[in-house]
């Protein structure tokens, strides 16, 4: 799990099980990017293989559930990545340099970035997140702890744009993208995203510090996304409540179950919601029939090899990559400079 992510939007919506309500005009999917949440969600639910972008996990409850996931014994990424920062932050600071403009993509509770404040001594901290209320609550508490660091929170969906306002310092920008959030993209989308990051660096003095989950044993991976307590299942199912709020749909979470598995061919965890029975879901202007066992895709989490990481960064316009690992080499943190 990571936030937010980019899933292909606006697929062909022709499907015999999707029925228009003729009392209102049906929302039509275009071939380009859907800028409004309602249009994007309707396009995803209307696709032949239905999907909901994982960025919609993160309403207020979803953000809290994700915090709980990070404390689960099965969910190794958070602990493993944190241990890498704790063990290697001085080396990271030596590579990055102090006084950077620290731009934290998908900041959440800001804890990961805050753990590096002492080493990096940022001149400005710019947390970016799609969950507006949660972001501002997090920054208020952080500003009290670090009153000398200027903070500029940005509530935005950075999966589609990285246009930063003039309030963000242009000098020595360091994009911080922890938590293997890049894994939510497919390889081509990941490359496009990294290229957008590179274009947001005005000179070659900036860079990216990124955490990435590595390929490992299938049992370890699947347990991390389908924990015994069912917290991840609740997190996945909660997206239906959020969709109901955003587009006026009538999903009932009791009609769905959480499904997660590792697809070795594509080196990715897949998360889905599977219909427990035949059912109809309605939203203003349309409805869709889901058959028992039919799934809505909610997340991919790709896993990486070291060569995957180096190749993506090089193609995106970064070089001079430095990597740090945990003892089991389950996770990597990489710093790469713009070139």
Automatic annotation (TrEMBL):
Q: Which Gene3D superfamilies match?
A: Vaccinia Virus protein VP39
Q: Which UniProt keywords apply?
A: Methyltransferase, Transferase
Q: Check the record and name the Pfam families matching this protein.
A: Methyltransf_33 (PF10017)
UniProt-listed InterPro entries: EgtD (IPR035094), EgtD_Methyltrsf_superfamily (IPR051128), MeTrfase_dom (IPR019257), MeTrfase_EgtD-like (IPR017804), SAM-dependent_MTases_sf (IPR029063)
Whether Methyltransferase counts among this entry's keywords is yes
- Stretches assigned to the Histidine-specific methyltransferase SAM-dependent domain: 39-337
Question: PANTHER family from the xrefs?
Answer: ERGOTHIONEINE BIOSYNTHESIS PROTEIN 1
NCBIfam families hit by this protein: egtD_ergothio
Q: What is this protein called?
A: Dimethylhistidine N-methyltransferase
Protein species of origin: Herbaspirillum frisingense
């Amino acid at each position: 799990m990571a936030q937010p992510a980019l899933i292909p939007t606006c697929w062909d919506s022709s499907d015999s099980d999707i029925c228009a309500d003729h009392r209102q005009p049906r929302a039509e999917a275009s071939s380009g990017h859907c800028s409004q949440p309602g249009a994007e969600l309707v396009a995803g639910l209307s696709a032949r293989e239905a999907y909901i972008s994982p960025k919609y996990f993160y309403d207020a409850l979803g953000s809290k559930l994700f915090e709980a996931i990070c404390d689960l014994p099965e969910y190794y990424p958070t602990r493993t990545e944190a241990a890498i920062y704790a063990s290697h932050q001085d080396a990271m600071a030596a590579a990055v340099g102090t006084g950077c403009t620290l731009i934290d993509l998908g900041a959440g509770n800001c804890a990961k970035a805050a753990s590096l404040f002492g080493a990096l001594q940022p001149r400005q901290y710019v947390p970016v997140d799609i969950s507006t209320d949660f972001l501002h609550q997090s920054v208020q508490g952080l500003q009290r702890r670090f009153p000398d660091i200027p903070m500029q929170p940005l509530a935005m969906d950075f999966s589609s744009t990285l246009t930063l306002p003039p309030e963000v310092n242009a000098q020595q920008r360091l994009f911080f993208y922890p938590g293997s959030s890049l894994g939510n993209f497919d390889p081509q989308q990941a490359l496009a995203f990294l290229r957008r990051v590179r274009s947001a660096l005005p000179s070659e003095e900036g860079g990216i510090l990124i955490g990435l989950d590595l390929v490992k044993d299938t049992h370890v991976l699947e347990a991390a996304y389908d924990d015994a307590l069912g917290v991840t299942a609740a997190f996945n199912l909660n997206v239906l409540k959020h969709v109901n709020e955003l587009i006026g749909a009538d999903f009932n979470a009791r009609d769905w179950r959480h499904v997660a598995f590792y697809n070795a061919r594509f080196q990715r965890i897949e998360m889905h919601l599977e219909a427990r029975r035949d059912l109809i879901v309605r939203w203003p202007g349309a409805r869709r029939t889901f058959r028992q066992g039919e799934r809505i895709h909610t997340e991919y989490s790709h896993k990486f090899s070291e060569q995957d990481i180096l190749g993506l960064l090089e193609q995106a316009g970064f070089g001079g990559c430095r990597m740090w690992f945990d003892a089991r080499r389950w996770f990597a943190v990489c710093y790469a400079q713009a070139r």
